[in-house]
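Lab notes, practical 5.
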Amino acid sequence: MGILDSFDLSGKVALVTGSNRGLGQGMALGLAEAGADIAGVGVGDDAETAEAVRGLGRRYAYRHLDLIAATPDDLTELVNGIVAELGRLDILVNNAGIIRRAPLMDFDEADWDDVLSINLKSMFFLAQAAGRAMAQQGSGGKIVNIASLLSYQGGILVPAYTASKHGVVGITRAMANELAAHDITVNAIAPGYMATDNTAPLRADEERNTAILARIPHGRWGTPDDLKGAVVFMASAASDYMTGITLPVDGGWLSR
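Output from the prediction step:
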């Protein structure tokens, strides 16, 4: 196999949470461009993603599921349903997440629970269900979790989000250790400041926006397309001997 062939995902099935918009949509399209069929999960309209994936000649399936309220049984049922419809599961991208902003002294329990439920709890139990399916197939697999720059830093006004994203890094390492025996790699991507719905308040704040851009060596906010290369690499045979790693894609933010 030539090196470029190792990035080919033809015949693979990828499950991407939050695939209907933003970073999840961008990564789903990147995986489809590399040859994978896509199973999406979200709570909104997926028509745009569905049209784009099918336009590439790939199969696309979508499940409407609120990951905040989802139980481990719901997530196992989700994975089993995707395997039944698309025939297998080779790649999981745990992208779905939320952020709630409030001063530390005022941050309430409901917001804490919602953020941890989707960003950490559902991420773990979906990876567990996917790992079981991949192990049963016996052909290995790839799990990619989405971390954040706040996996490295404390941030301001986002204590639950910061806690959850530090947790993503730790769980990624723990999963990598145990799933290696099944030829399943587990890695994470830590996006930098990306132009998504989650960062709209920051981009609308002229002072914060200017300060953020001043620290990014590339001088711009990232886009969903900026994650395509990283997710295809982590989902492909090109990364078979890499596991437990969190890779920043941040325009140089952490270098400053």
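Observations recorded by the TA: Strands lie at 13-17, 37-42, 60-64, 91-94, 141-146, 184-191, 246-249. Residues 20 and 38 are 12 Å apart (CA to CA).
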